[in-house]
Specification:
12 helices
């Protein structure tokens, strides 16, 4: 098979739009669909065909890439796409869907003759736009010649975790990785909030840990978004992070693991969303430390 493919991208939010553009830049024919068409329209300027329905977008596609909010959203959109699906097409399922939902999605793929690849990604807006995501992938060896060019277009690295997408090994690794991301983000917000409350300049803390084992580029990057009021556009929105935190807590519960930090992170993110920060970067969980939603770091 030629490396030039017809790829359908369903869901053109922060990540999906960037992935669609990189697929087009790599020379693939790309069709895109989004529930709110206006969000997909700018992709037309990159030579991407914006479609009115999922079924139109997937017709005769070699690969279908889904990057939607959660598992139920992905399943619902694929059901809408069903009339246009081609038996034998690859389904690159990149939505962070959770373990149980991944099984449901794989079952749908089997019913419609699709070759299912569990393929969540690590990275946020900037690496997505640069085509530098890390793709976590599980799926059959036979057929990887179709999906590898897709992974190469959107990512700098592909980590294969297994040959059975339905087993969700890539999703399991993604949840583990995201548990660390969310814990680090919550800690960054709380250290800023505590500094604020105790009248300690954040720079004093950063100077204290500089160059030592507690120093962390991610901490400084997330803190800067709050301190410099750069929470929009989001790299990873509060609302989406809260959804992922809930998936992590549920995955732990189902496997006999109590995740107190992830549960607290979910609560903080949901509180920040209720304060009006749902569409801001997840660093805005900082605001959940205060009763006054307008509280700002100095």
């Amino acid at each position: 098979m030629t490396d030039q493919l017809t790829v359908s991208v369903l869901g053109t939010g922060i990540m999906g739009a960037a992935m669609a553009r990189n697929l087009a830049r790599a020379g693939h024919t790309v069709r895109a669909w989004n529930r709110t068409r206006a969000k997909a329209e700018p992709l037309a300027g990159d030579g991407i065909q914006v479609c009115d329905s999922p079924a139109e977008a997937v017709r005769d596609a070699d690969a279908v890439l889904t990057m939607l909010y959660d598992g139920p959203a992905a399943l619902g959109v694929m059901r809408e796409a069903a009339p246009g699906l081609r038996s034998g097409a690859a389904w690159v399922q990149s939505t962070t869907a959770g373990i149980g939902a991944t099984g449901d999605l794989a079952a749908f793929a089997g019913e419609h003759g699709l070759v299912f690849y569990d393929a969540p990604v690590l990275g946020t807006r900037q690496p997505a736009e640069a085509g530098q995501l890390t793709v976590l992938a599980a799926g059959p060896v036979e057929g990887r010649e179709t999906v590898q060019p897709v992974f190469d277009a959107v990512g700098a690295r592909t980590v294969w975790t297994g040959e059975d997408g339905a087993a969700g090994s890539a999703t399991r690794l993604k949840l583990v990785a995201n548990s660390w991301v969310l814990a680090a983000t919550a800690a960054a917000g709380e250290v800023l909030a505590l500094a604020q409350g105790l009248d300690v300049a954040p720079e004093s803390f950063f100077d204290l840990i500089a160059g030592g084992p507690l120093d962390m580029g991610y901490l400084k990057a997330k803190a800067a978004l709050v301190l410099e009021d750069r929470l929009t556009p989001a790299s990873f929105a509060v609302d989406t992070a809260a959804k992922d935190a809930r998936l992590i807590v549920e995955a732990g519960r189902q496997h006999g693991v109590r995740l107190d930090v992830a549960a607290a992170s979910a609560e903080r993110l949901e509180r920040a969303a209720a304060q009006g920060h749902a569409d801001e970067d997840m660093a805005a969980a900082y605001f959940a430390s205060f009763d006054e939603p307008e509280k700002q770091a100095d």
